[in-house]
């Protein structure tokens, strides 16, 4: 692929988890910081080593201040399929680009990173000594060097068949590490207020990155739960708010989710979670409200809507009802009373969500949400669409052998008009997902079949 002479080559060392989410995260962040994705990265598939071209080192550093999918980034000086090819590549790298980091007053060290193989110390020293042709003039400092260089060797993805020689070898100058430590520091296990479906910290940050959340944005979650997604957005400097139909969850009341704790404490709530991480100043508010009946006046308020709607498995899908909708046989309530809740079909929930996003997002704002699917019946046509929203990415996370959820990212590209909210009723592509209204039954039918199969095998 022909590359512009103004672009420098960089090597990304990727984490080996959430593989489908990595490429959309990197693309979203590069777009956010003014970079352009120039490598045909799809060809790397599951590899942890990605080569891409960027116009500046600043963009590479900004990328690493946000990503949780990448471990480190290096300015790539050389690359080859063998040691000979690597050395040849390094010798052709412009000396003027090396000199600022190799002058006599500088300190440095060289590290070895191998994927899918462990080297002895003797083998590592041998590889470092072989680089003596490079014009290093500074002093080695293993504790606090000014510059760190790395040899990275790729031995493939199969741990049961490790080749004697690497498939690829890279050499580069370390620039920065990613934000992998956020996964531990924001772990749900350490969080003060959680619920049955609190989102994993790593996925929360991935969602915020897919949504291009940035400083001073306003981010909204219509199914806020215990506010895990708000925390990730607030960490990146966005002001956060949300709604939920469950009064007890919003106010931190009722039974606790944690083991050996019967009731929630007086300070267990969403605001307290943000306070725990020093993010309370970004908390706008959370309202008890029904996502199917938004109470917002018309307008474009939100830079991003990031949410995890209920699937009806651990948390029920509910909406507020009315007197006309009460099933026959139930004693009539006073006119001033609204029944606690009625069932809320998944297809209706997602269509309402897309309409709400189309109406309230700013142009260029993003909607990021989870779509549960029954895998044997899933096709891409089932993903709900809207004339005001462009599909940016669609990533799968498996839940079981027969179910998964798709992380859908959409961008608002057109101003909402009243007729847009009815477009789905006339469009055939919207019809297939209606079969997933029975997602809960299909989910548990698979569980029941698996238990029955295990019981039969135990009896034999």
TrEMBL record:
Localization, UniProt: Cytoplasm
Family recorded in the similarity comment: Belongs to the class I-like SAM-binding methyltransferase superfamily. TRM11 methyltransferase family.
Catalytic activity, reaction form: guanosine(10) in tRNA + S-adenosyl-L-methionine = N(2)-methylguanosine(10) in tRNA + S-adenosyl-L-homocysteine + H(+)
Pfam families found in the cross-reference section: Tmrp11_N (PF25904), UPF0020 (PF01170)
Keywords assigned by UniProt, alphabetized: Cytoplasm, Methyltransferase, RNA-binding, S-adenosyl-L-methionine, Transferase, tRNA processing, tRNA-binding
Protein name: tRNA (guanine(10)-N(2))-methyltransferase TRMT11
GO cellular component: cytoplasm; tRNA (m2G10) methyltransferase complex
CDD domains named in the record: AdoMet_MTases
TM stretches of this protein: none
Summary of subunit composition and partner proteins: Part of the heterodimeric TRMT11-TRM112 methyltransferase complex; this complex forms an active tRNA methyltransferase, where TRMT112 acts as an activator of the catalytic subunit TRMT11.
Single GO molecular function: tRNA binding
Chain's role: Catalytic subunit of the TRMT11-TRM112 methyltransferase complex, that specifically mediates the S-adenosyl-L-methionine-dependent N(2)-methylation of guanosine nucleotide at position 10 (m2G10) in tRNAs. This is one of the major tRNA (guanine-N(2))-methyltransferases.
GO process terms (BP): methylation; tRNA processing
InterPro entries recorded: DNA_methylase_N6_adenine_CS, RlmKL-like_Mtase, SAM-dependent_MTases_sf, TRMT11, TRMT11_N
tRNA (guanine(10)-N(2))-methyltransferase TRMT11 N-terminal domain segment(s): 9-180
The EC number(s) this enzyme carries: 2.1.1.214
């Amino acid at each position: 692929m022909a590359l512009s002479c103004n672009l420098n080559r960089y090597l990304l060392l990727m984490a080996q988890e959430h593989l489908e989410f990595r490429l959309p995260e990197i693309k979203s962040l590069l777009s956010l910081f003014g970079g352009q994705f120039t490598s045909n990265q799809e060809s790397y598939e599951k590899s942890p080593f990605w080569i891409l071209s960027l116009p500046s080192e600043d963009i590479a550093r900004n990328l690493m201040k946000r990503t949780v999918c990448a471990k480190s980034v290096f300015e790539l000086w050389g690359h080859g399929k063998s040691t000979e090819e690597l050395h040849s590549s390094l010798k052709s790298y412009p000396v003027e680009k090396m000199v600022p980091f190799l002058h006599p007053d500088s300190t440095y060290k060289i590290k070895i990173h191998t994927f899918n193989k462990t080297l002895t110390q003797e083998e590592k020293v041998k590889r470092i000594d072989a680089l003596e042709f490079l014009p290093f003039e500074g002093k080695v400092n293993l504790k606090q060097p000014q510059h760190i260089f790395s040899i990275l060797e790729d031995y493939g993805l199969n741990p049961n068949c490790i080749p004697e020689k690497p498939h690829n070898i890279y050499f580069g100058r370390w620039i920065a590490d990613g934000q992998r430590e956020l996964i531990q520091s924001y772990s749900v296990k350490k969080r003060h207020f959680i619920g049955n479906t609190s989102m994993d910290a790593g996925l929360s940050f991935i969602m915020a990155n897919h949504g291009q959340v940035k400083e001073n944005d306003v981010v909204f979650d219509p199914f806020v739960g215990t506010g895990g997604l708000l925390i990730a957005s607030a960490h990146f400097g966005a002001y956060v708010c949300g709604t939920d139909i469950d009064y007890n969850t919003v106010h931190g009341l009722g039974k606790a989710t944690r083991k050996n704790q019967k009731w929630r404490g007086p300070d267990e709530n969403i605001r307290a979670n943000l306070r725990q991480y020093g993010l309370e100043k970004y908390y706008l508010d959370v309202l008890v409200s029904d996502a199917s009946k938004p109470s917002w006046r018309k307008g474009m308020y939100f830079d991003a809507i990031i949410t995890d709607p209920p699937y009806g498995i651990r948390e029920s899908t509910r909406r507020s009802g009315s007197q006309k909708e009460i099933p026959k046989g139930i004693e009539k309530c006073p006119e001033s009373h609204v029944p606690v809740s009625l069932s809320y079909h998944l297809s209706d929930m997602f269509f309402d969500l897309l309409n709400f996003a189309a109406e309230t997002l700013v142009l260029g704002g993003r909607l990021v949400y989870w779509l549960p699917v029954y895998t044997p019946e899933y096709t891409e046509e089932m993903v709900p669409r809207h004339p005001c929203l462009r599909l940016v990415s669609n990533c799968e996370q498996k839940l079981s052998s027969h179910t998964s959820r798709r992380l859908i990212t959409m961008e608002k590209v057109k101003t909402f008009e009243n007729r847009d909210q009815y477009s789905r009723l006339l469009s055939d592509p919207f019809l297939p997902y209606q079969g997933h209204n029975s997602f809960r039954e299909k989910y548990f039918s698979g569980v029941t079949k698996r238990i029955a199969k295990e019981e039969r095998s135990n009896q034999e």
